[in-house]
Recover the amino acids of this structure.
């Protein structure tokens, strides 16, 4: 018998195929599944549609509640803007000449999204949780035990890498800066424009402060963790995850570099993916560097470090997936690490990874996971999530929320970076996209509407 927490795949897959063919509405879906007399998502739908009317590109939302997917719906566009449009300038900070409607691409329930930093959880963290369960990884050993090239350089002003443990990387207390632009670094030790040099450069990344003196969310931490998985697992991160998780879970649209290395032998085209930044990585043609992409990014990882320095396969970014397949992945955290009788890790490991860092409990970080401690991540999870809720977000517009108290999972896959840059930001380099502060891009309004539709909102 299937674990009761697992997705009811056969029934849902049939309904899902009907949605794709356009033969059922959401109301019909509810009569075919578990929500015939259940939640009313009208306010959520209105919020999504209003945000798109204001200019947000689009999104897919999936809601799993008490063992069933009760909502899986696409809104708006997978591509609303592309590089054929005139770019904004400081002189024309609000000018937009959108592409013709016929050139846009509608979002679909099976649209594949760049997960950005959700990669950290559903690729790297899952791999680490698996390796710990196998006895192959000790979180309290120094990183140098696994990555000997991870050491201080003589010129580094802050020393201490020898004491940095794997747990420190997961807690974001190693002392690294949030990011280093390896692909355009002036430091020859840190410059990397291919994967081989990228793997070395990340290990040379200097500390910004001594280890364990602060919490600072850092991509560098997860770049190192991804390489650590490769070192222990004996293969690149993408192949390790495909063999260990994605293929056994029968995920068809989840993986790294799907255009070049399709999962399970499938073939994809750019139109299968949601588009992100309009003019490559130029921030509306405000910057350039050697080899920079200038065309609309669609089907390639947006993150520059992952793309230019690590060949699209990195511990911090690079994973793609759909809303339905994300719910399958997320369900492992509610089922004790099991899916359809196969164990990937166990509840003891889940509990350890979800325990707030005792040194900085108020910061809301477990081992990688964002935890809703004292409302620390209310800007992600909203006002109604329980203090047991956890998950992660992704810079391009993705969010995952898992709430064990309510037996609830919500995934929001959006592409808020497929909007123009607000050129009147008053900074030398504007990096504020129009979509960032629209309702869908702001995350918590969407999550709050889900809780309210389910009757889970606490009275204020």
């Amino acid at each position: 018998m299937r674990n009761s927490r697992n997705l009811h795949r056969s029934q849902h897959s049939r309904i899902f195929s009907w949605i794709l063919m356009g033969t059922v509405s959401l109301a019909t879906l509810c009569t075919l599944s578990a929500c015939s007399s259940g939640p009313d998502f009208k306010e959520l739908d209105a919020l999504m549609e209003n945000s798109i009317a204001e200019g947000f590109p689009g999104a897919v939302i999936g809601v799993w509640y008490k063992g069933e997917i009760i909502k899986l719906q696409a809104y708006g566009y997978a591509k609303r803007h592309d590089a054929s449009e005139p770019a904004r300038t400081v002189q024309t900070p609000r000018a937009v000449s959108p592409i013709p409607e016929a050139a846009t691409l509608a979002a679909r329930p099976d649209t594949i999204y760049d997960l950005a930093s959700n990669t950290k959880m559903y690729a790297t963290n899952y791999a680490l949780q698996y390796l710990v369960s196998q006895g192959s990884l000790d979180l309290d050993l120094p990183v140098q035990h696994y990555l000997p090239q991870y050491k201080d350089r003589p010129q580094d002003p802050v020393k201490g890498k020898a004491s940095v443990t794997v747990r420190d990387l997961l807690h974001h207390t190693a002392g690294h800066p949030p990011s280093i632009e390896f692909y355009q670094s002036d430091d020859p030790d840190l410059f990397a424009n291919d994967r081989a040099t990228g793997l070395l450069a990340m290990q040379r990344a200097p500390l910004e402060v001594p280890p364990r003196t602060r919490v600072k969310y850092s991509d560098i931490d997860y770049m190192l963790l991804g390489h650590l998985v490769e070192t222990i697992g004996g293969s690149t991160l993408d192949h390790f995850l495909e063999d260990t998780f994605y293929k056994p879970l029968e995920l068809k649209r989840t993986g790294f570099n799907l255009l070049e290395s399709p999962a399970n032998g499938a073939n994809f085209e750019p139109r299968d993916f949601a588009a992100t930044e309009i003019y490559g990585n130029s921030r509306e043609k405000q910057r350039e560097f050697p080899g920079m992409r200038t065309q609309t990014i669609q089907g390639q990882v947006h993150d520059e470090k992952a793309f230019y320095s690590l060949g699209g396969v990195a511990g911090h970014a690079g994973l793609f997936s759909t809303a339905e397949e994300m719910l399958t992945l997320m369900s492992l955290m509610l089922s004790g690490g099991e899916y359809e009788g196969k164990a990937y890790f166990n509840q003891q490991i889940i509990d350890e990874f979800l325990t707030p860092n005792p040194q900085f409990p108020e910061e809301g970080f477990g081992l990688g996971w964002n935890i809703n401690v004292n409302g620390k991540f209310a800007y992600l999870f909203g006002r109604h999530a329980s203090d047991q809720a956890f998950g992660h977000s992704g810079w391009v517009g993705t969010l995952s929320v898992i709430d064990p108290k309510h037996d609830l999972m919500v995934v929001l896959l959006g592409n808020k970076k497929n909007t123009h840059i607000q050129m009147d930001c008053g900074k030398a380099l504007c990096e504020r996209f129009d979509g960032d502060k629209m309702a869908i891009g702001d995350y918590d309004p969407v999550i709050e509407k889900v809780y309210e539709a389910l009757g889970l909102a606490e009275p204020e």
About this structure: Residues 1-5, 8-36 have pLDDT under 50 and may be disordered.
